[in-house]
Structure formats: structure tokens, C-alpha cells
Amino acid sequence: MPVPFRGRTPRLLLMERQRIETETDIVISGAGIAGMVLAALLARRGWRVVICDPAPPPEAADAAGSDLRSTAYLAPSVELLKTAGLWTALSPHATDLGALRVVDTKGWPPRLTEERTFRPNELDLEAFGKNVPNWRARHLIAQTLERDDRIDLRLGVGFASMLARDDAVLVRLSDGSRIRARLLVGADGRASPVRDAAGIDATIRRYGQKAFAFAVRHDRPHENVSTEIYNAGGAFTTVPLADHEGGPASAIVWMNDGRRGLDLMEMGEEDFARELNLRALGLLGRMTKITEIRLWPVITQTARRLTARRVALVAEAAHVLPPIGAQGLNTSLADIAALDAALADGDPGAPQGLDRYAAARERDVAVRARVIDAFNRICQSDGEALQSLRLTGLRAVHDIAPIRRRVMGAGLRPMGTAL
């Protein structure tokens, strides 16, 4: 039942109700993967959900604005997607993450100095997780949500403003429509309008790096192995995909110092292909780019708080991490699981539920941000001392079995638990 507006005069109550076009339990700003997974989970608990996003999901990899990254959904994330009723749609498009190979290099052209492979059988798993291209996952999840009567999916419409009260939040969307809800969730990205409207600041650490995302075909099978190759400027990561036109394919995330990244973007196809294949060390044979390149700045950004009155922040509205170790979207899905578990039964925006959510996630987010920030700085550096530290760390993490198992397990803890 809708929560009544307490303490208002009849005239004010009438004015407010004349402005309200929709009453619901929860509004989610942001229909990216994280926001839509949250909508599915909340709807399965019986909540009425409105979710909006100004950018509808692209229907193909080559469509404008498509996200060409591929996410390795680690084992807890796969379980969460199953709970949300979404994995059935995604699983036919998923590729096993059967191992993680870490390669250290130095100089240019890169020279391999060390290589180690981490395998999931040490954690009694068949695979670390499943890889699905982001554009495809978002498109398929949106199709699933459209069939759920408890979810009002509004694509092409964004969040405009909010007025939070003790018992409800009044939300205005970019098309002028007004919604009365008991909770507003900001899942609307690193420049989150909801975070700004709630008066929550964010801290930002910049690295002067640019990241590329695109897909390639290559000569040799990837054998379901994801590879991170470290060199000055940051990591070069291959993520196994399903075959493309009969040949093996991988998604690439390639970090560079900013100037180097811009120089690469200005190269012709032949010169870019030469630099790409040098950077990949030929580990998968010759690579050929098969999609456009998406470019974005690498930062670490964390919200100073995860909640405000009748407001919760999740995913990139709460934290942005460098693209290392499959931590980005998996950390966002940990937010989703924790928020879903924390909300009070009778009132999803009640302070006690939001406090439980903040307590469950703030330390974990802070620790992960610090660890990945430090690791990225070490990996980015071309200084001899930091390169030696990176090499020593790789050997210690892999070669000392208890440390190896602890590091591998850190990203596979149950959703919502801290490191």
C-alpha cells in the first residue's frame, strides 16, 4: 500500500497528488546492466519498480554507443543473475573463463619477462566465470524486463530532479512525468545525476590513462583463457569470446598513457595493427580488429557516501575502478546483491535498510578502490623500481600457494561481503 503523506495540509496534499502521475515502490535511474539486474531482483521480491535511462540499449555491436567491453561474470555474479531470472537469456552467449594468464613485459617492443597462469580448479571451480559482451547482455536483459508486469521500463527518458521527504521521494523525469516512490536508486554512471541531486560528493583519482575497448579475431584458439599483459601505460587484457565467422575471437581492453592513446587513435589501420600485434606479443597469433574502438579515461572514483534520505547509490554512481581483474561490474553486482538484501520489508527507503546497505558495502568498496589504485599505478609505471616490484609481486602471488588461493578467492567471495 502507498505510504501516506504525513503532516501535510489537505491543500498541499491535493497539489502534490495532482502533480503525481505514477506511484511506485522504487525508481531506478540508469538502465545499464547493474540497474536492470537490480530491477529484476526487486521485482521478484514483489516491489513495483520504475527504471529509466535516456539511452536505449543498442541492438548490435556496431550500433552507435554500444559498449564493446566484455564482462567476465565471476561465479557469485552468475549465481546472482540466476536468482534474478536473467541467466537463461545470457547463458547461450557466454564463454567460459577457464583460466587467467598474467604476463609481465618491459621495453618496446615488449619483451616477456615472466608469465603465470591461475586456474579455478584450486578453488574447486570448473571456471572462474562466464564472459558476455556488454552490449549483448544489456540488450537481452532489457528484453527480459519488458516482459515483467512489475517493472515499468522507460527507455529514452532520464532522471531530471528529486524532492526527498521523510516518507517518500518525488521524482521528475526528463519527459516531465512525475513519480512518487519510497526509494530512488542512482545506477546512472560515473556522472550520476542522482548523486548530484542528493548532494553527495565523489573523490576522483586520475592517471592520465586512456582505455580502448574493441574485439579482434586471432589465429590461435584462446582455449577460454583470459590474459593480462603488463607494460608501461597499463594492462592489455584479452577476454575470450565465442568464435567470429568461424575463427577464434577475443574482447580487448587496452590501457595506455593519454598521449600514447591519442597517437594510436590517429594511426592508420596498418600502423595500428602493427602496434596491436606487438603489444599482444603474438600469444594468440595475428590479431585483426573486427569492431570499432571505444575510448574512455581511466579513473578511480568513489562516492563519499552511498546513501542519502530515500536515496541509494550503486555501481558506477558509487564507484568507478580501473579495468583490472574483472572487478568493475562484478563489484557493482555486489552492490546490487547487498542492497536487495538490506531493504526493509515494509518500506524499501526506510533509514534502517539504507544503513544496512551502507554498512555492507562501504568498507569493501574503499578497500577494493585502494588496492586496484595501487596496482594500476605499479602496472602503469615504466620506472625500473616499480617494474621490479610488479615482477616480484607476480611471482609471490602465484608461487606461494596460500597467497595464490587467497588472491583468487578475493574476487569470488559471496556477494555483499567484504574483503
Q: What is the beta-strand fraction?
A: 25-35%
Using the coordinates shown, work out and report the CATH topology of the domain at 10-58 and 133-204 and 300-377: FAD/NAD(P)-binding domain
Number of strands: 22
Second rung of CATH, namely the architecture of the domain at 10-58 and 133-204 and 300-377: 3-Layer(bba) Sandwich
CATH superfamily of the domain at 10-58 and 133-204 and 300-377: FAD/NAD(P)-binding domain
The low-confidence runs, each spanning 5 or more residues with pLDDT under 50, are: 1-15, 396-405, 414-419
Helix content: 25-40%
CATH class designation of the domain at 10-58 and 133-204 and 300-377: Alpha Beta
What is the averaged pLDDT score?
Answer: 87
SSE-based structural type: alpha/beta
Number of helices: 12
Write up what this structure looks like.
It is a single chain. 34% of the residues lie in helices and 31% in strands. By secondary structure, it is of the alpha/beta class. It has a domain of 199 residues: FAD/NAD(P)-binding domain. Strands 6, 7, 14, 15, 16, 17, 18, 19 and 22 form a 9-stranded mixed beta sheet that branches. The radius of gyration is 22 Å and the shape is globular.
